[in-house]
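Q: Could you fold this chain for me?
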Amino acid sequence: MCGSHRGVGTAQQVWNQRVRGETAIQQFDRNYVELLQEVRVAQTGVQILFAFLLGLAFTQRFQSLDAVQLTVYIVALTLSAAAAGVLLAPVMYHRLVFRRRLKHHVVMTAHRLAISGLVLVLLAMVGSVQLAVSLVLGVGASVLAAVVGLALSCLWFGLPLLDLRRHEQDETLRSTGCD
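A: Sure. Below is the predicted structure, expressed as structure tokens.
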């Protein structure tokens, strides 16, 4: 293994070698391809949201926004722009360190950027829901936006963390012979 992979040998890599026949480098390559596919899906959604929010400023109804709605609009627009930028960052990172034998660092950095970008997407979506509902219904917009935010947080973060916790408990039981 090249110098940039020192100390990276993990139980996951041992498992990949045994079960999949993958070297650590092959695993990093596969992880990066999988991550890029996930980012492509998220990027499409955030670009549509960003375009919608940008276009909103050029509608006749935009002039009727009150101070709170205008603030929510600016925050949602800024969050969607930030999300688009953060979700694009792994591409630029890869371009700048390409062929430097840093694939593990690219994968780990892209992983963190993808999570950060998705948090920004979540916040932009909540702001967009709040704004749209406030225009249509007026009352209850913040409550509905909070419910949407909570539901998405449970799906995006709670469910995977719950499965990770279950998996760790299963692994502990197997390793102690209590299976």
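A (continued): The radius of gyration is 21 Å.
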